[in-house]
Design brief:
By secondary structure, the chain is α+β, with helices and mostly antiparallel strands. It folds into 2 domains: 222 residues, P-loop containing nucleotide triphosphate hydrolases (Rossmann fold), CATH 3.40.50.300; 112 residues, Nucleic acid-binding proteins (OB fold (Dihydrolipoamide Acetyltransferase, E2P)), CATH 2.40.50. 24% of the residues lie in helices and 35% in strands. The protein has 8 helices and 20 strands. A 6-stranded mixed beta sheet has the order 6-7-8-3-9-10, sandwiched between helices. A hairpin with a 2-residue loop joins β11 and β12. The chain is globular and about 75 Å long. 36% of the residues are buried. The C terminus is likely disordered.
Amino acid sequence: MKKELIRLENVSKSYDGELILDDLSLTIHENEFVTLLGPSGCGKTTTLRIIGGFETPDKGRVIFDGEDITSLAPNKRQLNTVFQKYALFTHMDVAENIAFGLKIKNKPQDYIEDRINYALKLVNLSGYEHRMPGSLSGGQQQRVAIARAIVNEPKVLLLDEPLGALDLKLRQDMQYELIRLKEELGITFIYVTHDQEEALTMSDHIVVMNQGYIQQEGSPEDIYNEPENAFVADFIGDSNIIKATMVRDELVNILDTDFICVDKGFGENTPVDVVIRPEDVELVERGEGTLPGRVSHVIFKGVHYEMEVQAGGYAWLVHSTRLYETGKEVDIKVDPFNIQVMNKPESEDEEVLSVDD
């Protein structure tokens, strides 16, 4: 089992009377890639800034490697941060920016040059040593900021949406490079994003946040396949989220139609929500499935067709490699293992607009 590295204990934070973090507790282990995921204003960046020492919690403690660092200054912590803003020194060239932290630590010049070359190669900027930040694109400046943090080999690297300025191809390349870097150097990454695809691609552990507290945390597979509430299901990937009734164990009524499922323990005739991923909705010929419907819209997405199917008074989202033309009469069929039953939300924060009324 991996060693615990960071622990947030009952952390709360308010700004101007508005509660941003509400009694949040979180444990992060060594050499994990942890992503704080959620919409704008959910508290993920505030959490990152508290870990980094740029904010002090109103309540609670930050424990790092067994020591209380709640009041410790950022430059005294064994971590580096890559912000949304590049924060490069405009009067220094690229190499000088990258070398800044190493020079403060009085590292030998040969070592500094080796680390600069390594970092530039990693972020695909070899040959840019003597370029000034003002001559670089936004994406190039962000890569320099990442390189500057990497060369210091911190125990923890904090990243606040660092890839947002990059084009899609380079963004994808950098995702895999960050994963490789974590494995090579044994650095713990704490990554903030609102991009669920980015979170699923890179993370060992995802923390889904909303309204200042944690909705769910776990592996990407657990978060995607076993969402604990409608908010998580809707935020992580496309979903069909529908109000339903748990008739009894292993039988749920969706849109006045009984579907066999594998869930138990919800009681009898209990209101629930169900989540069915678009790729798990199977379209079959009329009479061969469970719920009759009609294809109302089709978009070609390259690897699959995205179809909207009107069935039971609900617009089902369906992803399939098989095309069903608009207007086609079909039946919907779902494997029992692909029906995820959830308790009704206990608070408004757990609800999503896509839940069918």
